[in-house]
Design a protein that fits this description.
Structural class: alpha/beta
Subunit structure: The complex is composed of two ATP-binding proteins (GsiA), two transmembrane proteins (GsiC and GsiD) and a solute-binding protein (GsiB).
Strand content: 15-25%
CATH superfamily of the largest domain: P-loop containing nucleotide triphosphate hydrolases
CATH topology of the largest domain: Rossmann fold
Number of helices: 22
EC number: 7.4.2.10
Enzyme class: translocase
GO molecular function: ATP binding; ATP hydrolysis activity
Number of strands: 22
Helix content: 25-40%
Radius of gyration: 24 Å
Function: Part of the ABC transporter complex GsiABCD involved in glutathione import. Responsible for energy coupling to the transport system.
Number of domains: 3
CATH architecture of the largest domain: 3-Layer(aba) Sandwich
CATH class of the largest domain: Alpha Beta
Length: about 550
């Protein structure tokens, strides 16, 4: 019998609110055994991350407190451990990979300095210098050009690269328990497969126990020995992963499994599924492409010389990219992190310098155009960014945030803007009453709905969606994707839909473009790409997608 290395017993956490205490965790109990992987699954707001923060002793004392229960690590109580001993334990014997790497990394320290600091703080460098170990760990998580990455700052890396840095930092001290809070959310499927393989190797080699928090049921199936399903701060059910997937006892668990997008489920069809019944009325669509891109190239100059004077020419990040999006259709852009997907999305909206030809609804977009000339283009196309929390001003209520584009473009008076905001909130499934609330008062899925409402404020013809559902759990993601499809049917919207999730791309797209190293290696209809891929890289992406079937992984182990 394996011994419990980490035990949570009756853990109860209360939140302080103006109305009094509100229970956010209610008598949560589970064991994490030596060398085992336990997955916590559930919707956002179910208490998964609060549980992990309570174990790490990182709950913000001003707003959250443990009111009952105990947490035991290797026989010692973490709730009564002195702060000095807890700091030594935290990051050493118990390490954590956080969900949002940009807010977890120090923006004024280089990657190498941050990683070396963690290694030295826990005395884990041994005979090798911390600098050598940081390089080895970046190589272990398959970071390209690791030596250069050590000298860069967090803002210079893509979201997937930053997450790999967080994983490398957590693994560098060889922890006994690794708490991974959505560790592969920002990663493409091939890198995700590499990271999951790395975690399994660490578990085998060092008997590391893993508490994995994820909304991806494919990852749960691949990684979990046992699964605990959470809802509303309570454990709905827990058990062996085969039992949870094949014989779920609770309706909520069955709903989670039913919401998982499955690659190949739309085989034989040419378009995304309809969300609303045909009404006989269709939006009037233009006869030319909403977006036409020819020979798009993007490169970033790197400073050099004394005090950064001059610039060093670097290879193009995006090279000779061409595609078009017809009115009312979606082009899915898929590829690994660093392949140039997000750069392409920003370039076609004129947010970064580029060369080549870009036309939006018949208007030419030029690099360095003045704000005055860009204003009509902004009304034609909007962007939904990956991180909704970072996209919203925390000091601005969401009603003002949604109305801001109308104000900038001088559309409507104050009363009409309020009515328009209320209508937009209703359209994305939120009550107009929430207009006076602030971003921190919403869940991740609700914040993404707010960003969609803001993007719709100017009635654009094109929306660039950059990993807009990557951080959402499966049930919320399904609702947001259905919302986007419904809006496309009703308004005739076109989407440039950027994602690393092949199942999501299959669900949303009419056409698919596969990017690698700044180039489009394959482009075609959804049916062509998914049923008869011509490029080995496309086949590799599809084979790396986790399948929500734990029996498959146990048979291949």
């Amino acid at each position: 019998m394996k011994q419990a290395l980490l035990s949570v017993r009756g853990l109860t956490v209360d939140a302080r609110t103006p109305q009094g205490l509100r229970r956010v965790l209610d008598s949560v109990s589970f064991d994490l055994n030596e060398g085992e992987t336990l997955c916590l699954a559930g919707e956002s707001g179910s208490g998964k991350s609060v549980t992990s923060l309570a174990i790490m002793g990182l709950l913000p004392g001003a707003s959250l407190r443990v009111s009952a229960g105990e947490i035991l690590f290797d026989g010692q109580s973490l709730l009564t451990l002195p702060q000095r001993a807890l700091r030594h334990l935290r990051g050493g014997d118990i390490a954590m990979i956080f969900q949002e790497p940009m807010t977890s990394l120090n923006p004024i320290m280089t990657i190498g300095a941050q990683m070396a600091e963690a290694i030295r703080a826990h005395g884990r460098d041994g005979q090798e210098s911390a600098e050598v170990l940081t390089r080895q760990m970046l190589d272990a998580v398959h970071m390209n050009d690791a030596a250069r990455r050590l000298t860069q700052y967090p803002h210079e890396l893509s979201g997937g690269m930053r997450q790999r840095v967080m994983i490398a930092m957590a693994l560098s001290c060889r922890p006994k328990v690794l708490i991974a809070d959505e560790p592969t959310t920002a990663l493409d499927v091939t890198v995700q497969a590499q990271i999951l393989t790395l975690l399994r190797e660490l578990r085998r080699e060092f008997s590391t126990s893993i508490l994995l928090i994820t909304h991806d049921m494919g990852v749960v199936a691949e990684m979990a020995d046992r699964v605990a399903v959470m809802r509303g701060g309570r454990l709905e059910e827990q058990g062996d992963s085969l039992d949870i997937f094949e014989r779920p006892q609770q309706d909520y668990t069955r709903q989670l499994l039913a919401a998982v997008p499955r690659l190949g489920s739309l085989a034989g069809t040419d378009a995304p599924p309809r969300i609303t019944a045909p009404t006989g009325e269709s939006p009037v669509l233009s006869t030319w492409p909403v977006l036409d891109v020819q020979g798009l190239c993007v490169s970033y100059a790197r400073p050099r010389g004394w005090l950064g004077r001059g610039a060093e020419k670097t290879p193009n990040t995006v090279e000779s990219v061409s595609f078009s999006i017809p009115a009312g259709q979606t082009l899915g852009l898929v590829g690994e992190s660093g392949s140039g997907k997000s750069t392409t999305g920003k370039a076609v909206l004129g947010l970064i310098p580029f060369s080549g030809q870009v036309e939006l609804d018949g208007r030419e977009v030029r690099a360095g155009q003045s704000p005055v000339l860009m204003r009509p283009i902004r009304r034609t196309a909007q962007m939904i960014f990956q991180d909704p929390y970072a996209s919203l001003d925390p000091r601005m209520c969401i009603g003002d945030a949604i109305a801001e584009p109308l104000l900038i473009h001088g559309i409507a008076n104050a009363s009409e803007r309020r009515d328009h905001v209320a209508a937009l909130l209703g359209r994305v499934g939120l009550s107009p009453d929430v207009a006076t609330r602030y971003p921190h008062e919403f869940s991740g899925g609700q914040r993404q709905r707010i960003c969609i409402a803001r993007a719709l404020a100017l009635k654009p013809k094109l929306i660039v969606s950059d990993e807009s559902v990557a951080a959402l759990d499966v049930s919320v993601r399904a609702k947001v994707l259905d919302l986007m499809l419904e809006l496309q049917e009703q308004l005739g919207l076109s989407y440039l839909f950027i994602s690393h999730d092949m199942a999501v791309i299959e669900r949303m797209s009419h056409q698919v473009a596969v990017m690698r190293g700044g180039h489009i290696v394959e482009i075609g209809s959804r049916r062509q790409i998914f049923e008869n891929p011509a490029d080995d890289y496309t086949r590799c992406l599809m084979q790396a997608v986790p399948i929500p079937d734990p029996r498959r992984y146990r048979q291949s182990a």
